[in-house]
Design brief:
It contains two helices and 13 strands. Strands 1, 2, 3, 10, 11, 12 and 13 form a seven-stranded mixed β-sheet that branches. The protein is extended, with a radius of gyration of 26 Å. One of its GO terms (biological process) is establishment of protein localization to organelle. Its main location: membrane.
């Protein structure tokens, strides 16, 4: 009797398990990265994806801080028009935002003034001179928009985001949410920032965030799984052909 050349069901099952494992790994990496806070409650409107702005800080030695990113603020405040506490989400518009700041040996700041100086957002970076690692250590915000009963002031000096190495830029293409205070979180998009070790007006080599690395890992895992399936199918076909030939008897 001629042997069947069908693909063993366990082959397909193993491949599906590999692909599902890759997808689940991506899901867990996205929702619970070590330095990315959970997204706060949904705001009452969606302004869409913010435009990416390019910002710099100069001192007597030239450019000392570079940043390229889209920024979206989630602010909770007492609304005049609605007479209750609401959460609003607003994009920073680069063409209406002025940047300034300062740079020292182990600290640097980027100040963003927008909407006719009604929003003042400042990022503070700290460098560890021993490890040569830097991170976003502090964020402050003051906002006085027309619908606010009183200005919103938020400040946090104990943050640990956007970690990089001296002379290198930090890069993260994926959206991140940075929790700053109870009434403020910041969504960042396509971030590249370097507060220390710049040479000229160009970013140093980029160190990519864990979210981007995980995003690149998925197609590699899926591709390897598919390649393995093709190899298994080929081997099953060759073994089936060999058995079918061996099954014929000369009468």
């Amino acid at each position: 009797m001629k042997q069947s050349n069908s693909i063993p069901s366990w082959c397909v099952g193993v491949t599906i398990q590999l692909i599902l494992a890759a997808v689940l790994h991506q899901g867990f990496a996205t929702v619970a990265p070590p330095t990315t806070a959970q997204t706060t409650a949904a705001p009452h409107k969606d302004p869409g994806r913010p435009e990416k702005g390019n910002y710099l800080v100069k001192n007597i030695n030239g450019t000392c801080l570079l940043a390229s990113m889209g920024l979206q603020l989630n602010i909770t405040f007492n609304s005049v028009s609605q007479n209750k506490t609401v959460q609003d989400v607003m994009n920073l518009r680069p063409n209406m935002t002025k940047s300034s700041g300062s740079c020292d040996t182990d600290s640097a700041s980027l100040q963003l003034l927008t909407d006719a100086d009604k929003i003042n957002l400042t990022f503070f970076f700290t460098l560890n001179s021993t490890s040569r690692k830097y991170h976003l250590s502090e964020v402050s915000l003051s906002a006085a928009l027309p619908d606010m009963k009183e200005p919103v002031v938020a400040h946090n000096r104990s943050l640990d985001y956007l970690r990089g190495t001296y002379g290198y830029s930090y890069m993260c293409r994926e959206e991140q949410t940075l929790n700053v205070a109870e009434d403020l979180s910041i969504n960042t998009f396509q971030v590249q920032v370097q507060p220390f070790g710049l040479t000229g007006d160009q970013f140093g080599a980029a160190e990519e965030c864990q979210l981007d690395e995980d995003d690149m890992l998925i197609p590699i895992i899926v591709g390897a799984a598919l390649a393995g399936l093709v190899l298994i199918v080929l081997l099953a076909y060759l073994i089936g052909r060999k058995r079918s030939h061996a099954g014929y008897q000369t009468i």
